[in-house]
Amino acid sequence: MVLRAVAGKLLVEEGIKRGLKVSQKYSVSVLGYDFIGLVSRLLVFYVVAFIINAYFMASIKGGIWLNSLAVLLGSKPFPDTLPQWITNLFTVGVGSKGIPVSTTPTAPRQFNPPGWLEKFEIGGEFEGLKYFDYGSLEHHKAEPDVIPALPTAGFTITFWQIIQIVSILIVVVEALQYDRMLKDKGQKANVTTLAVFSLIGIGISLMTFPQMLQKMKERRILNA
């Protein structure tokens, strides 16, 4: 039984290897580029990133498969504490948490109430301060309890989003190298091959940038 299982496993592995070789040859013969190799390299890249992400998530939150595996092995490889920026990187993201965006005023002295200029004169409420318009960012800083909080827009990025952006760059670099190689040989890149490169890059982009833009919109709405 054991010999049969081993033989079956070897046959499956050999079949997979032959299938990959045939697919690679077909990709090169038809498209002029080994897209099977590119996809394989991206998969390895994502697997390594997944393991790194799992390690830190196990350290930060716990309760995932890696924690269970560590318990079974009788080890505790996870640190008790981590720097805040690392915790943010693998959870909410790092970056700008909120940049004030002034929506008022849109013109000089647009919303200044009567007697506003007198507030900056000797004996006035803002004596000694540099002049600012009513409702401006400077006014908000001077009277945070009087002026409502201004809407903010922040940009944050997580570890997994960085991985997705790097994978897009990998595809772009591979395409540029392929194009340069053909130019050195005095040949032109196959339009279909470039289209496949574009599809891979666009596919990864659609999984990355819409999420980042949506988070920015949500943050702005929450802080409005």
Uncertain runs are 98-103, 148-152
Total number of domains: 2
Class from helix and strand fractions: mainly alpha
Strand portion:
5-15%
H/E element order: HHHHEHEHH
Rounded to the nearest angstrom, the radius of gyration is 29 Å
Q: What is the general shape?
A: flat
The average pLDDT value, as a whole number, equals: 74
Helix content: 55-70%
Overall number of strands: 2
**Strand order, sheet with most strands:** 1-2
* Largest sheet report: 2 strands, antiparallel
**First-last Cα distance:** 68 Å
Number of helices: 7
Q: Layout of SSEs?
A:
Elements: H1 2-31, H2 35-60, H3 65-73, H4 84-89, E1 94-100, H5 137-142, E2 152-157, H6 159-184, H7 191-222
Antiparallel strand pairs: 1-2
Helix pairs in contact: 2-6, 6-7
3D structure, described in words:
With 224 residues, this protein is mostly helical. The protein folds into two domains: 22-93 and 154-222, no CATH class; 102-150, no CATH class. Helices cover 60% and strands 6% of the residues. It has seven helices and two strands. It has helices at 2-31, 35-60, 65-73, 84-89, 137-142, 159-184, 191-222; strands at residues 94-100, 152-157. Strands 1-2 form a two-stranded antiparallel ribbon. Helix 2 packs antiparallel against helix 6 and helix 6 (159-184) packs antiparallel against helix 7. The radius of gyration is 29 Å and the shape is flat.
